[in-house]
Amino acid sequence: MRRIPEETIRQIKEMSDIVDVVGQYVDLKKSGSNYLGLCPFHSEKTPSFTVSRQKQFFHCFGCGAGGDVYTFLMKREGLTYPEAIRRLAEQRGIVIAGSEEEAERAKRKESLYGLNQLAMQYYFQTLMTETKPKAYLEKREIGYKVINRFFLGYARDSWDGLRDFLTAHSASVEDAIEIGLLQRSDKGRVYDRFRNRLMFPITDYRNRVIGFGGRTLGDDRAKYINSSESFVFHKGDHLYGLQNVSRDARKEPIILVEGYMDALQLYQRGFHRVVACLGTALTPNQAKLLKRYGGRVYLLYDGDEAGVRATERAAEVLAEQGMEARIIPLPEGVDPDDYVREKGPEALQQAMDNALNRTAHFLRRAMQKHDLNDTDGRIRFIDEAAAILAKIDRAYERDEHIRALAKRLDIREESLRREVESRFDKGAQIGYKNRETTEALMPEEREKPAATRARTQLWILLLAHAMEGTAQREALADFLTDRFISDTNFYRIAEWIKEEAAVVPVDALRDAFAHDRTMDRYVESVVRAYSWKGAKKDPQELYRALRIANLQDERDILKQEVALLAEETAEERVALLVEKLRRLEEVNRKLTQANQGG
After folding, report:
1. Residue 531's pLDDT band (boundaries 50, 70, 90)?
2. In this predicted model, which residue has the larger pLDDT, 205 or 107?
3. pTM of structure
4. Measured in whole angstroms, how far is the alpha carbon of residue 143 from the centre of its chain?
5. First to last CA, the chain
6. 207 DSSP 8-state letter
7. Whose C-alpha in 256, 338, 558, 593 is 20 to 30 A from the C-alpha of 10?
8. pLDDT on residue 180
9. Which has the closest alpha carbon to 114: 235, 200, 232?
10. Cβ-count burial of 98 within 10 angstroms (0-12 exposed, 13-18 middle, 19+ buried)?
11. What's phi and psi for 349, nearest 5 deg?
12. In sequence order, which residues have a C-beta less than 8 Å from that of residue 356 and are 6 or more positions away?
């Protein structure tokens, strides 16, 4: 069986939110920025199984299981690494080249992309010859450069314009119905779905036409309609205008708007890194897509109450993906299109410079609701502000807001801090008293320097043997994969080692791990040769050092958890405390054995 391309593996993983996947097997509850539930890999009564949406990682503090979305499926369903990849690919409609069935699916997709491309050409040509859509765009101050850049089009006020065009080009009417270009009436008549509408072609990140949005130029009740969900179009997975955003300028911010016309208007005014949602609230998959193109996102939604609520939801979704959101507030009843046309690009740039982060926005909104000159109003505001500040995960950021707010309200900082701490999530397994510790308990981040050194040397050892094509490389791969079941990167290298006749090409390794900073560093360490001395070391000795360091670290964490749990008096904590003590005793026993060479 052919090896699955690395780009495909990465694409499948990016489209598979671990919270959604794990949530199919485990009843997860939000706890801070993570999710908590009963571990599916061992029996427990008190939740100790944590899933991080931001890190796309799971970890159980009870049994030590952990890994990414592929690892979870491997452990839960007993799948191999390639089987887990294919399972997720099938669920998300992603084609993996290899089998006849997969080749047929790929061929089918290309056919549908081509049909959308043909429809786009028809709509574009129609716009160029019709007065009505051109007059509308001129009124909205959209010039020809933008029309050509976004390939805007027009669907005539006709029942059969596109249908006849597609038929004349020998295109499949049934396929056109499937992807929502045409419709069939109850009497069997086939007709155009989009009529008298300005057409916005929607493309994927590879610039393939996957669907359309259409704005009525008449008095239809539905102002906007999109292509129906199909084999090639899932609106929650794509963003309008993304084809114009370069990944080469990742340090530059992206502006996220709600509507097609908002995006066009901003692009017309020089804001080229602008994208729009497709008529839905921002989804986690769209947030992941944004993350690949830049770090900071500016949210520029309508200034009405619905727009503000949509902004706040979008900010939460972005935060869950570890992205920084800045919120640009607009006056009541004003949308981005109107704002930039009336005020100009300079005003929008100034608004961006003054944009608020998520917490500052929520505090500002809370402040506007209460009379701070009235005692009752101040108390109600402090209650709401404390709840907002309690949601901040980073301690230093929370402290900054507490200090600033206490100064502004002229109250004691310590009083406000106690109010915030009283709202910490008591449902977490070790309480918010040690929230920073809880957030940092993912295995990679918990390793001490000794563990980090040992793991680095093991990677250098494996990669060096892979690149040199040594005779021992298969045995080494077997040894390491047996001991690093939760690390899918070990599986990837091991598969290559067993498949390649001679050596694993350096370029293949670089391409595979181009988006993994740690792995990329390991590869370059071997290539630069200064760390090749690690390849001379005994893998069993290195693994033993790693195991000892991790066990020592786990022991320290368990001691800390036991100490924190001992402060709790609730009866439901007793079972977890007993379990932690039992686990601590077991770790101590394993540590003794490891130190003795066992």
Report:
1. very low
2. 107
3. 0.59
4. 34
5. 38
6. -
7. 256
8. 94
9. 232
10. middle
11. -65, -40
12. 326, 327, 329, 364
The tokens of 131 are what? 């007065």
Residue in 442, 464, 449 with CA at minimum distance from that of residue 539 = 464
Fold of the domain spanning 100-233: DNA primase DNAg catalytic core, N-terminal domain (3.90.980)
The neighbour count for residue 309, using CB atoms within 10 Å, is: 12
SS3 per-residue string spanning 522-574: HHHHHHHCCCHHHHHCCHHHHHHHHHHHHHHHHHHHHHHHHHHHHCCCCCHHH
- Separation of alpha carbons 7 and 292, rounded Å: 13
Render pLDDT for 4-29 as a digit per residue (tens, 0 to 9).
777 788 888 888 989 989 988 898 98
| CATH of span 236-323+331-340 | 3.40.1360.10
The answer to whether 289 and 206 are in contact (CB under 8 A) is no
Confidence of residue 185 (pLDDT cuts 50, 70, 90): very high
What are the structure tokens assigned to 488, written together?
A: 């899918």
Q: Which of 194-208, 240-254, 552-566 has the lowest mean pLDDT?
A: 552-566
Beta strand pairing call for 296-299 and 274-276: unpaired
User: β-pairing, 296-299 with 254-257?
Assistant: parallel
Compute the distance between CA of residue 141 and CA of residue 80 in angstroms, rounded to an integer.
56
Q: Which residues contact 148 (CB under 8 A, 6 or more apart)?
A: none
Give pLDDT tens digits for 222-233: 899 999 999 899
Residue 95 DSSP code: -
Residue 427: pLDDT over 70: no
CATH superfamily for domain 6-91: Zinc finger, CHC2-typedomain (3.90.580.10)
Q: Is the pLDDT higher at 308 or at 567?
A: 308
- Whole-number Å distance between alpha carbons of 212 and 265: 18
pLDDT at position 322: 77
Report CA dihedral (137, 307, 253, 206) to the nearest 10 degrees: -60
The pLDDT value recorded for residue 165 is 97
Amino acid type, 104: E
Distances (CA, A) of 349 to 195, 308, 329, 512: 37, 20, 13, 39
Q: State the Cα–Cα distance between residues 16 and 396, nearest whole angstrom.
A: 32
